[in-house]
Design a protein that fits this description.
mainly alpha; membrane; EmrE-like; transmembrane; disordered C terminus; WAT1-related protein; 379 residues; WAT1-related; 13 helices
Amino acid sequence: MVEAGEKPMAAAWSVEAVMLPASMVLVQAFTMGALLLSKLALNVGMEPFVLLAYRNLIGAIIVAPFAFYLDRAMIRKVNLKVVGLLSVSALFGIVLAMGLHYYGLRATTPAYSVDFLNLIPVVTFAMAVLLRLEKLAARTLAGRMKMAGAAVCVGGTMLASLYKGKLLQPPWPTHLLLRQWHHPAATAPAHHRNMALGTVYLCGSCLAYALWFIVQVRVARAFPCKYLSTAIACVSGTAQALLIGAAVSHGRAASWRLAWDLQLVAVVYSGAFNTGATFCLISWAISRRGPIYPSMFNSLSLVATTVLDSLLLGTVVSVGSLLGSLLIVIGLYAFLWGKGREMAAAAAAAPAADHHHHQNSNNKPNAAVTAAAAADERV
C-alpha cells in the first residue's frame, strides 16, 4: 500500500531528476555564449580588465539580494579578516583567473580557450598534491584513474596546442556572423592573434583557478556564507580590476565608456548569466549531487563552442584540435570517475570511523578494518 506522502515525494524527485541536468546544460549554454560574446567584444577593442570590472559589478548586483536575504544573519560577522580573505580569493579567482583567461581568449579562439576550462579540475588536483592537501593514492584504482585522466588531459592539450594537421572543411557554412555584420573590426586585429602567448595566458589562468579553489577551502571554513561571500568577492574583484584596468589603459576614459553596442551586450550577459545565474545553478546542483556533478557536463560547452566558433566566426577546425579536444574529454571523465569513487569511499568510511571513535580500545582494530574494507569495496 502506498503511503500518502510518497507520491508528492516521488513527484519532487522526478522533477529534480529533470531539472538538475537541464540546469547544468543551461550553465554550459551560458558559458558558451559568454565565450563567443566576450571574444567579439575583445576583437572590437574592449580591454580585458574593463570587461572584467563591469562583469563582476553586475554579478555583485545580482547576487546581493540573495546574500542579504539568505545570509543576512551573517552580515554582522563581516570584519577586516573576512574582507581580507575574500579579497585574496577575488585576486586569484577573478583578477588573475578571469583576467588571464580574457587575454588568452583575445589571442586565440573560443574553441581553443574552452579546452583549458576543462583542465581546471586536473590542475587543481595537481596543485593540491604538490601542496600536500590531497594524497596521490597511486595504489588504489581511483587514484590510478585520476593520474591516468590527468595525463591524458595534458596530452590532449599539448596535441591541440602543438599539432594542427589537416584542416577540415565543416559540413556547415562559416563566418555567418561576420558576413551579417560586414564589419572589419569584428575580426581580431593582427596583434591579437598569437597562439603561443595566448596559451601561456590560458595556462596561467588554469593555475590561478587552481589556487583559487584551494583558497576557497579556507574561505568556506572561515566564512561559510556562499552568497554573501560571493557578493563581497565580486565587489573586491571589481575594485581590483578597476585599478589594474586604469593602469593598463593609462587612464583613458574612452576605454571605459559603454554604448548601446556589442560591448554592453557582452558585459550584461556575462555578469547576469555567466556570473549570477551560473553561480546559483551550480550551487544548487552541488548541494543536491555533490561537487563532481557540474563538471560532468563540461564537454557540452567544448563541443558546442567548437561548432559555433566555426559557424559564426569562421575559426578553422583541424585534425589536431579535434583529437586534442577528444583526449581532454576522455581524460576529464576518467579523472572525474576516479575522484567520484574516492569521495564515495570516503563517505562509506565515515560512519565506520564514527563508530570506531565510540568503541572501546579492544574493538578499535576491528572498526578500522571495517572502515578500510568498506572503502576498498567502494573503490
